[in-house]
Amino acid sequence: QVQLVESGGGLVQPGGSLRLSCAASGNIFRINDMAWYRQAPGKERELVAVISSRGTENYADSVKGRFTISRDNAKNTVYLQMNSLKPDDTAVYFCNANIYTGYISITCWGQGTQVTVSS
Mean pLDDT for each 10-residue chunk of the chain (119 residues)? Predict the structure, then answer.
């Protein structure tokens, strides 16, 4: 059993910042890619940023230069630092991780955390 638990969402004014965290726990042998997705009302879920186990980062064009993904492998945790937030960033943000349990590889999702950018 593996679980991802997110935290750090909330209400912020345009131009503000938030930091999301996502901690993995359970039967973990190795965590491969970790990522953040988001889903706005009426829209499909989209990839925001992904980081490999070696620290290679990739971002959606809409967040490049504003968001930074990082991870702490000792804590099995991934972060998303979001700066210069815009109303269009309003969405439910989901953590995603590809985890090898020692027997199989599984893709896990967190429960989601709401980010609202509004004045």
Answer: 94 98 96 98 97 97 98 97 98 97 95 97
